[in-house]
Amino acid sequence: MSSDPTVGRSSSIGGPSLDAGDIASHHSGTKATDPAVLEEIAVNVAIAAADLARGRLGRKQTVDTKTTPTDVVTGADVEVEAFIRAALQAATPGAAILGEEGAPVSGSTSVGWIVDPIDGTVNFLYNLPVMSVSIGATVAGEVVAGAVVDIVRGEVFRGSVGNGVLRDNARVTPSATTDISDALVGTGFSYASETRRREGAVVARVLPEVRDIRNFGSAALHLCWVACGRLEAFYQEGLNEWDVAAGAFLVSEAGGRVELGSDANGGLVLAATSGVFDALRNLIIE
């Protein structure tokens, strides 16, 4: 982990704490494929992006829709992602970038970035205080580091391969719960109404068997809360790579179990403490 005293601290509300030039200069001469270096870059960029997003909260936004009328994108999503892309490209020239709001950049090096500028856009639009910036770093296509910053609370979740996971510079691990009846479970729902009907049936099976279910509207934060033990598990189908790249990595690096979406499991993402993973999966997938 980096010893840089600026890492993991949020700057003043209203604007980015670093610009692209700052970040590029700070990391000049470093080994670009070192997971710890990529972690530090992700953290600094995510903190600055969270400051930018926080400064846009409560302001009038341009709003458009994507896959369905409930799948919204705001002007702030686009603005924050543009800032993140510029900062990452300056810090790691030639890196690939996959982001929710812009076209993919193929890149010319082994380094890549997977970006969700505001995970929890509906919450952002309604000024509900659960949303995050999520940045995952890859080397040769494998996620090796990640950072997720809670936009409102300022908490920073971070980690890289072999270095564990920190929340605001304190090491975290998943819950030790082994009984599914004691498990607090997070979930989320599709933007498609037909999929929601199926998801309702899954909730009906899971809810009687667990402590309770929560849906806070940010997959990245749900995953981080599994990593640090606030939730025993999180599941959701139909998530995109940018929704889960950093958070799922952090769960795994912290010691939890993760199953990513695939054709074989119906697109289910499941992350949980090892003690309840199998029991929950059996409830979700009949």
What does this structure look like?
It is a single chain. The chain has eight helices and 14 strands. It is globular. Helix 6 runs parallel beside helix 7 (241-254). With 286 residues, the chain is an alpha+beta fold. It has helices spanning 20-26, 35-56, 75-91, 121-125, 193-206, 219-227, 241-254, 277-284; strands spanning 63-65, 72-74, 96-99, 111-119, 132-139, 142-150, 156-160, 165-167, 170-171, 184-187, 212-214, 233-237, 257-259, 268-272. The strands form three sheets. The protein has a seven-stranded mixed sheet with strand order 3-4-5-6-7-8-9. It has a five-stranded mixed sheet with strand order 11-10-12-14-13, sandwiched between helices. It has two domains: 20-171, Fructose-1,6-Bisphosphatase, Chain A, domain 1 (2-Layer Sandwich), CATH 3.30.540; 180-284, D-Maltodextrin-Binding Protein, domain 2. Helices cover 34% and strands 23% of the residues.
Main sheet record: 7 strands, mixed
CATH class of the largest domain: Alpha Beta
Helix content: 25-40%
Structural class: alpha+beta
Radius of gyration: 18 Å
Q: H/E series, N to C?
A: HHEEHEEHEEEEEEHEHEHEEH
Number of domains: 2
Q: At the third CATH level, what is the topology name of the largest domain? A: Fructose-1,6-Bisphosphatase, Chain A, domain 1
Q: Tell me, what's the shape? A: globular
Summarize the structure.
The protein has 286 residues and is an alpha+beta fold. It contains eight helices and 14 strands.
